[in-house]
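tool=predict chain=A
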Amino acid sequence: MEMPINKEIRNYTESVFFGLTMRQFIFSAAACLIAVLLYFSFRNRFGIETVSWICTLGAAPMACFGFIRYHGMNLEQFLWTWLRSEVLMPKYLTAGNTNIYYQAFKPLINNLQKGDEKHVDESDTAEDQPGQGDQEDPEDHAGHDPDQGTL
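tool=predict ok
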């Protein structure tokens, strides 16, 4: 005796009626009920072939609700996800060229284009760290008397 075992445990479904899950059975019964209601509504107005097409087209969406799964979602979950992503919160994607490397090296590129041979890193380190680099600029201490102490 051999028993079929799903390779993925999440794909397991328990059959309740006629090999259908409870969800499939409920939606199949609802589809049959809609088909019967459509038949009795239109049998006196149209021919039998037209009524059968109306019944089939009317019951098919309800039957689909029970059987269709897309990316692990039921049809109503998929429809809600689609509605939310496309209608309620649409994204406007624009194709633009943004070069993060250009933005990072933009000061260096501007300095090189102006003809300044100093690199941005060298100019920053010499000015930011006192005691390193060239001698202090006398204009930095203009108006300061060394005999009076520090500011």
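The CA atoms of residues 39 and 51 lie 6 Å apart. The two ends are 95 Å apart (CA to CA).
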